[in-house]
Each structure stands twice: as C-alpha cells, then as structure tokens.
Design brief:
Number of helices: 15
Keywords: Lysosome, Membrane, Transmembrane, Transmembrane helix, Transport
Subcellular location: Endomembrane system; Lysosome membrane
Distance between the termini: 74 Å
Largest sheet: none
Order of helices and strands: HHHHHHHHHHHHHHH
Oligomer: single chain
Main location: membrane
Protein name: Battenin
Structural class: mainly alpha
Family: Belongs to the battenin family.
Number of strands: 0
C-alpha cells in the first residue's frame, strides 16, 4: 500500500487564501495522481529536470549545424581529405552558446529578488511557451539571426524553469535535489543522443529539431497533472521558515516574512564556497565543448566532422548523467578539486586544438567522457551540500542564487571561445599555406 494513502489531507478550509485557480489545479493533480498511481515525487522531479534542460541541450548539439546551414550551407566532411585540413565556420559555436546562456543568466541574476511575485503555474506556462517557440523558430529559420533568436527562447525557458523548480524543491524531501540533477543530466544524454541518432539515421537537422516539441508538452503535464502540490504552499508564499515535505499539513506558524535585502546579500556571500568551484568547472568544460570540439576532429574516420561534433556532445552527456546520478551513493565534498581537474583538461585540449597530436578519435572520446564526469559531479555535489548545510529558512533562496554560478562560467566560456576560435583557425590556415 502507498504510504501516502494513510496521510490525513487538510481540508480546503484549513488552507487559507485558496483561489479558484489553485483549487482547480489541485483537482488536476488528483486526476494525475490517479492516472500515475501517485508516482514518487523524487521521480517526477527527475522527469522535470530532463524536460527543463532538453531544449538547451538540443541547441548546443545542433550548434554546428545551425552555423553551417546559415553561413556556409551544408558542410560536407570527407574521410579522404587531407589530415592537415581544418574546416572552420566563420563563427564559433560559442556564438550559439552565448545565445543559449546569456538570457538564462540574466534571469538567474535577477529572479531571486522578484520571482516570488509570480505564481508557480504562470512560471511553468512561460517556460512551455518559450520552449515551443524555440523549436519552431530554429526548425523553420533560414537566417542566422532568427535561428539565434530561437536559441535565446530556449535559454529563457530553461533558465526560468531551473530557478523555479530548484526553489520549489525546498518544499519536498532533499532527495529531489539528486533526482533533479539526475534528470538534468539525463536531458543532456537523451537530448544529445536523440539529435545525433535522428540525424545519423537520415533525418535532416531541421526535422530533428521539430520532433523535439513533444518535450515541452510532457513538461507541462508532469507539473500540472503529476507533481504533487505541497498542502502548505500558496502560489505566492514567502520563503519557508522550515523545510516541509509534500504531505505535511499547513500551520500558519511555519511561515516567515520574506528575507531582507541585507540577509540575501549575506547569504549570497556565504554561498561563494559552492559558487566559485561551479563557476570554474563550467567555464572549463563549456570552453572545451563550444570553443574546441569543432576544431578537434579526424578526417580518417567513419564520421564526418559534423557527426564527430554531435557524438562528442553525446559522449560528454554520458559522463554528466553518470556523475549527476551518483550523489546518493557517493557524495564528494571537495568540489574545488573537481574544478582544478577540469581546468587541467582545458589546458590539455587547447594544446590538442593547436598541435593536433592525439593519434585517434577514440582517445578524444575517453577525455570527453572524463570531462563530463567531472562537470556533473561538481554540479550535483555543490547543490547537495547546499541542501544539507544551508539553514532551512535560507535554503530556497540559496538554491536559486547558486544556480547563477554555472551560468556565469558558461557565459564567460562563450565570450572567450569567439577570439580563440578565430585565432586557431587563422593559425591553421597560415600553416597550411
């Protein structure tokens, strides 16, 4: 028997300030619980994490194709071409990375200070609309600026969703942080694998992107029909004085006043021990992924340069998924060490992009898998430590603020990738001549 069947649910009279919309939302969730047999909330959070980050991953996986299609036309790799040739897009894939991260970063920087004024249900609707729009725009665009606008919309959806659902996770058991992280890692793996698989099977990149519209639909269903609404939660409630599980009953004494600006700044300062390693590890790995991957490939293999780029993304996401799913088995406190290892990776691969000394693409696949393991481990262990070490009354705010760190690192990686791409391409052109 489901343990939750024995819980005593509070009546609507026990929960103050209930609007008709909130009551209707509860009815939808009850229908969802019947349909899904009250699926464990930690698993629902895994699905939400997957759906939320899916569009972001697709845009990065398709970055090389987006730029090739809108600047050079279809790029055709040749397995018999000279091993000293280097195919360079006029723009680095860091361009797509910037379009995919800057809007999300802007949301994360500002949202913790105003997000509570927006209902959770409205936030999720915004995420869905922007996700749908992003896939359609990229699929039907024939100009670079419009494609990049579609990428921007995917970024808005992902950033809004991440800060919303990480804050919402404070109302559930702390294990949802692990399953959320696992879900976001799964988004990387599932997104990169589905895109690479569909295009390798013969589907055009445009059609492959269009197929992905099923994901925003699943995202909305998961939140409104499946995810259980904490009985103690109102749509615009202040930060919590103490953590509560989904089945807990409401008590007015459990609510506190919103945090003051001074308190928010003090809490943010205390989070630097988690945020700085996150920043460093994400700078290194996204500089590698969007600044170097497109310049490191082999002509004498069965994969074209475009295909190698796609499968690099899959390989990286496999590593991320494995490590993000591991925190309940093995927690690693020294996240600074993970950041240092990732930056050693970066230095090594900058030399590889310049000298091209690795003998085989298989060695590159091993390095990229290791890169993904480090990045995923740093992310999940940082947020897991926050969920355990930060005071309960600060936890919801802290989750949202800490998510800014990885976005800042990714944004800096995108900015840095542009001149490095141009310098490496110029160097190789001069050496070939």
């Amino acid at each position: 028997m489901d343990d939750r069947s024995a819980e005593i649910e509070p009546s609507e009279e026990q929960i103050p300030n209930r609007t008709d919309d909130e009551k209707n939302e509860d009815k939808l969730r009850k229908i969802g619980n019947i349909l899904w047999w009250k699926y464990p909330m930690v698993e629902v959070y895994r699905l939400l994490g997957l759906c939320n980050n899916f569009g972001y991953v697709i845009m990065l996986s398709a970055a090389h194709d987006i730029l090739s299609d809108n600047t050079n036309g279809k790029q055709k790799g040749s397995p018999t071409s000279s091993s000293k040739s280097l195919q360079c897009n006029p723009l680095s894939t860091g361009t797509v990375l910037l379009a995919d991260i800057l809007p999300s970063l802007l949301i994360k920087v500002t949202a913790p200070f105003y997000m509570q004024k927006i209902k959770y249900s409205v936030r999720i609707a915004i995420c869905m609309l922007f996700a749908f729009a992003s896939f359609f725009m990229v699929a039907y665009s024939y100009t670079l600026w419009f494609s990049l606008l579609g990428v921007v919309f995917a970024s808005i959806s992902s950033g809004f969703g991440e800060i919303t659902l990480l804050s919402y996770s404070a109302h559930f058991d702390k294990d949802v942080v692990s399953t959320w992280s696992s879900g976001t890692g799964g988004a990387g793996l599932f997104g990169a694998l589905s895109y690479a698989g569909l295009t390798s099977a013969g589907m055009s990149p445009r059609k492959a992107v269009l197929v992905m519209n099923v994901i925003p639909f699943t995202f909305g269903l998961s939140f409104w029909l499946v995810l259980e609404r904490p009985d103690c939660l109102t749509e615009n409630e202040p930060l919590l004085a103490s953590p509560r599980n989904a089945g807990s009953t409401f008590s007015g004494a459990e609510l506190s006043y919103p945090l003051t600006l001074r308190t928010k700044l003090r809490v943010t300062k205390s989070l630097m021990q988690y945020m700085i390693p996150l920043f460093l590890v994400y700078f290194a790995e996204y500089f590698i992924n969007q600044g170097l991957h497109e310049l490191i490939y082999w002509d004498d293999t069965w994969l074209t340069p475009n295909e190698q780029y796609r499968w690099y993304q899959v390989d990286y996401q496999i590593g991320v998924f494995i490590s993000r799913s591991s925190v309940n088995i093995f927690a690693f406190k020294k996240i600074w060490f993970l950041a240092a290892l990732q930056n050693i990776n970066l230095v090594f691969l900058v030399f590889e992009a310049y000298f091209h000394f690795l003998p085989s693409v298989w060695i590159m696949f091993v390095i990229i898998l290791y890169e993904g393991l480090l990045g995923g481990a740093c992310y999940v262990n940082a947020f897991y430590r926050i969920s355990k070490e930060v005071k309960p009354e600060h936890r919801e705010f802290s989750m949202g603020v800490a998510s800014m760190a990885d976005s800042c690192g990714i944004a800096l990686a995108g900015v840095t990738a542009l001149p490095v791409h141009n310098a490496l391409c110029s160097n190789w052109r001069s050496r070939i001549r």
